[in-house]
Structures are given as structure tokens and as C-alpha cells.
Amino acid sequence: MSGSNVIRVGTRASALAMAQTTQIAERIAKAATADIELVPVTTEGDTSRASLASLGGTGVFAAALREALLRGEVDMVVHSLKDLPTADHPGLRIGAIPKRADARDALCARDGLVLADLPEGARVGTGSPRRIAQLAAARPDVVAVDIRGNVDTRLGKVASGELDAVLLAAAGLGRLGRSDAATELLPLGSWPTAPGQGALAIEVRRERGDRALERGLEAVDHATTRATVLAERLVLAGLEAGCAAPVGASAFIEDELLFLSASVYSADGTRQLTSSHAATPDSRSAADLADAARDVADRVVAELLGNGAADLAPREESP
After folding, report:
1. CB-based contacts of 153: which residues, under 8 Å, 6+ apart?
2. What's the rounded Cα separation, in Å, for the pair 8 and 25?
3. Is 214 helix (H, G, I), strand (E, B) or coil?
4. Which entry of 71, 119, 195, 218 is 20 to 30 Å from 9 by CA?
5. 104, 131, 175, 233: which one is catalytic?
């Protein structure tokens, strides 16, 4: 670390990124008996106004943070897990995945409206190809508007009347103290969200360094969340789809079973494939939970591909 009692934490500079990083960094600092220094890093996803689909999605918010970590400018970085590529980085590892927040999408609409009550032709803002496809499937009579910008900017477009509604992550609203803006929380059973949505990933250099930092990471790691998001992300990896692909996945553990359901959409929402399976972990150990996640993900991916998922979700291009 940069000093005997200072952990430098890399983060995007947006209000949401700073809020979620501060919350988790304070917990790590307490466990590590260290001070925290936040280091804002500007990423391609922050500077480009192009749509996520045209940027490729995968890594646009992560690459600059990873470079700062590899250069030794920070000791750890905090990602929104849904923005992190599924492939391992040769020089880095995920040191911890804290307990997940609400994984659902939230509709934030004018006049307290819910999705079913939006008028025909209503304009709904989102920058996510998955949300655009789901919206088209659920309400083909409304208009999806591709937008970028932070949470306040997006909500402002509803307040000004430019849009009738926006789709956002419930977790982000909660971390910013804006949960009251949601007029409907969309159920994961019918509206699965991005693999890893609602979860954070703390990435560090692969070699194990300062013991205080490791102690901090251990204090915030959440085994159940790590297993469920692993299952979801293995769906993306197995389909060879990027994190901007129209793929939704939801995993949870209940009654000693790990359940996983994943859906793949055509870009226009007219076609959808869904697969759901469950696995029984031998125990609640991290290793057994991970084995169950891999097992259930393998079966979901095999069924989706067998039913033609590769024709719906474009494969991610190699860099």
C-alpha cells in the first residue's frame, strides 16, 4: 500500500460510483485498521456519449481502473460487477464481492405510473440493449429512447417532460438515496437483470500483498453473493456474449438449492429463450458453492445454446 495505514481506492468519479465506493471502503478501512484515500479515475464509458451497444459494453467502465491498479497508482478498485468483463485478468483478481443490494430494475415514471399503465407511444429512456429488448417485449407500443448520463441527469429528463419514464437499477437508486424515484420495481422472475447487477466487485493485484488489506477484503466478502453472481456471469461467458448483450440472469439460494434462470432476447424483443435449473451445494463452503454455480450455469448455457441462443445474443468480439 502507499503508506503503512492508507489504502488507495480507485473508483469512477460519478456520484453513484463515489457513493458505493465510499460505503464499502469505510467497511474495509475499519476491518483493516487503515485510512482510505479515494482516487477518482475517468473511464471511456464516462467520457464517450456513444451508446453502450456501439462502445461494445464490456470493459468500457473497467479498463482505466484496471490500468491504474496495474500501474500501482491504487491498491484496489471498486467496480459495479455488471460492468466487469467475465474473463479473468492475468494480473488481477477479485478480492471480495460484498453482499448484494437489490438486483431489480426500477421504472421511474411521471405521475407515479407503472409499466402497464404507460400510455401508448410513451418515451422510456435507457442505454441498455437488454432493457430495450425487454421493454419491446413487454410494451411494443412504447418508444425506447437510447440515453446516457448519470442518475440525476436521467431522472431530470422525466421531471422536465422530455421522457415519460426511465429504467434504472434499483441498487443505484438506493445507494444514492433516491429509491423514492422508483414508481415500480420489476420482478426478477419476469424481468431478469444484468448478470451481477446490484453487486460490487473489489479488484486487487493478483499477488497477495499487505495483510491489513487482505483482512479488510475478507471482512466484506459475502460467500452467497459470490456464488450467485458467479452463476449469472458464467451464463454470459458460456454464451460468449458481452455485458451489453440482451441477456438477463437471476440466481438465488433457497432451501439449500442454488437456482439460476437466464433469458436471451433478440434486439427487438420479438424473440426470447429462457432456461432455469437448480443445483444442490454439498455444503455452504465457498468451494462447494462455486462448484454448484458452475454446474447449474453449465446446464443453463447448454440448454440456451441448444435452443438457438447464439442467433439472438451476438458474440463478443475479441479485442
Report:
1. none
2. 10
3. helix
4. 195
5. 131
For 80-111, how does the pLDDT look when each residue is reduced to its tens digit (9 = 90+)?
Answer: 999 898 888 999 999 999 999 999 999 999 99
d(CA 128, CA 130) in angstroms, rounded, equals 5
Catalytic residue (choose from 27, 99, 148, 215): 148
Cell output for 28: 474495509
Per-residue pLDDT of 207-236, as tens digits, reads 876 888 999 999 999 999 999 999 999 999
The total number of residues shown for the chain amounts to: 319
Q: State yes or no: is 108 an active-site residue.
A: no
CA-CA distance, 216 to 96, in Å (whole number)? Answer: 9
| Catalytic choice (66, 123, 130, 157) | 130
pTM of the predicted model as reported, rounded to 2 decimal places? 0.89
Q: Tell me: pLDDT of 319 over 50.
A: no
Give the Cα separation of 294 and 278 in Å (integer).
Answer: 11
12, 82, 100, 175: which one is catalytic? 82
- The Cα–Cα gap between 159 and 164 comes to 9
Active site residue 100: no
